[in-house]
Amino acid sequence: MKNFQFFFGLFCLLHLNCTLHHLKIDGGPAVRYVSPVKEDRTKFDLDRITAKKKISDNFDRLVESYNSDALTNLLEKGGYIQIDKNANYTLRYSIDITEDMPFPISPIFFLLTLGIFPVVETTDGFVTIQLIDNSSEKIIKEYRYEVTHKYVTSWLSIVASLILWGDQWDLAMFHNHGFPQEMIVSKFQKDFYTDLSNQKILFVSNSKNEKRYPKERYAILPVIYSHSKDKKTSDVIRDKIETVLVNKKYTVLERTKMNEITKEFKLAQTGLTRNDQIELGKMLNATNLILTEILELNQDDKHLEFSIKNLDVESGQILWKYEFTIDETNLSESINKAMEGLKSSIENP
Length: 349
Description:
By secondary structure, the protein is of the alpha/beta class. It has helices spanning 2-15, 59-64, 71-77, 106-112, 156-163, 179-197, 231-247, 255-263, 274-283, 331-347; strands at residues 19-25, 28-29, 42-49, 81-83, 89-100, 119-133, 138-153, 169-172, 217-220, 251-252, 288-295, 303-312, 318-327. The strands form 2 sheets. Strands 1, 2, 3, 4, 5, 6, 7 and 8 form an 8-stranded mixed beta sheet that branches. A 5-stranded mixed beta sheet has the order 10-9-11-12-13, sandwiched between helices. It starts with a helix and ends with a helix. 23% of the residues are buried.
């Protein structure tokens, strides 16, 4: 009985020790990034590819620290991604790593010193994350991270962890700790958010069961009018045009930001040439400009004639044109009827 207790105690002493992890990503220290939550998350089907070649008996447990079932929760925790098997896009996560023990005889000293002498192991390789459009099977974006992972197993790791404190260091009771995976996903979330914010990557739809929304980004310029008495009606028309486009799921640029940029031209709208309009659209990062003006064709003060043009910023071509008349004696009904006509013009240019 005493022999059993001795060997059981020795087993626990040697196996329930602590592993201190040290990780670098792309040659720099691993960092935990705090991500703001985005309400409209991009949906991806998750495709995990695990390493096919088994390097050692411990390799399966090592792989778990890079590519485990916890990956889904880590990706969704970041705030920008939702895992959905019906999504139009796939997030393919794969690893290619090699394992090495710089000091092969260290396990012998580890046993002789009852876990005090450290066992040092290293892992080097790459983690690749691909964003794939399922409809075309094309890779939208690929993120490839070089990882250098050193892990030291010893009772001394507990003492060392008190000194070596920071994101790139982590302490775990077991070897298959998911620390590398957590830090890699955190780095990816930061890069993914940066690319979304800078519009380097665009996603037009969230799910296979949802309507694929258009990519166009519309800038609606203020309505051109000649008489100050028409300003109020012109502002209402601009608001209504914006509502129609938003309901059609087009992206409409924020008006405050757009107004600031248009002021830089220091020109009356009537003074803008076609080249000016195209240049303005590029400054706004818009694909389309909505140009609206009151036509001086009808001298009846109770009627206003409007013309709306959709200008393609890249080509400078007018994609469609819509004209309508507003009866100011029956303003609400007249505008609503005109907007129904605008919807038809957008659907059937």
